[in-house]
Amino acid sequence: MNTAFKIFLAASVVVPVAAYAQSAQGPTTTLPSVYISKEDIAKISATEQNQYTRDENARVVDIGPGNFELGIVHRKSTHTPPPARPAGANAAAAAQRQPCGVQVDTVPADARKGALTHDFQSEGYLITSGGGTMFLDGHIVNGRNGMSETPGGPNGPTCGGIAVGSHTVVVKAGDVIVVPVAAVHGWADIPDHVDYMTFRYSTKNTMQSGWVNPTIANGK
Question: 126, 157, 172, 189: which is deepest, by most CB within 10 A?
Fold first, then answer.
């Protein structure tokens, strides 16, 4: 299965069938198609490589019933801890976010940190470089709601916390993962690094249609 077909597969499975619905008279949309070049994807990826974790969209495209976003993601090894945050920063940030998921006093033994769900967004991943072990499904406990601060996302409303009852899958370059709306997902282990593209479908009000990543806007 070549890369072009995998990209098509990942994009098609996350967009609901309704996005392609046509009337008896034929297509009803007059929205323009959007081209995102390999060079633009590389520009965004290059800005991420010196960061511990970076996830950003290239564009937010209006496709009629919702929005489509192409995300570019880089994650460094989980064996190397991220830079330390100022004392109390995590607690202060968490206190400002509303609880989500199941709230428990005792966390189960099989719980995994770093779990996410997205309220109005589905995702398809195409691993382009590196790999690791993902955990999928189950449910979140002791979560906190979050929201991207930019109109381009990458994710919209999110619940982040600890996953319980998830299963793991080892992924490598060329693999595709599909994450439905509100499904738990996260990374259990990244030996060296992982880079991947995400093909996202979200409701119209999740992000700003027409948004373009500043790295590629105006031909930069």
Answer: 126
User: For the segment 79-113, what is each residue's pLDDT rounded down to a tens digit?
Assistant: 998 888 776 655 555 567 899 999 999 999 889 99
CB atoms within 10 A of CB 175: 16
Q: Is 22 a domain residue?
A: no
pLDDT tens digits along 175-207 = 999 999 999 999 999 999 999 999 999 999 999
List C-alpha distances in Å: 74 to 50, 101, 145, 167. 9, 27, 23, 22
CB within 8 Å of 38: residues ≥ 6 apart: none
Rounded CA gap, 147 and 117, in Å? 12
Q: Look at residue 210 and tell me if it is in a domain.
A: no
What is the rounded distance in angstroms from the CA atom of residue 93 to the CA atom of residue 98? 11
* Residue 63 lies in domain: 3-15+34-80+94-205
Which pTM does this prediction carry?
A: 0.84
CATH number at residue 72: 2.60.120.10
Quote the tokens at residue 110.
């099989």
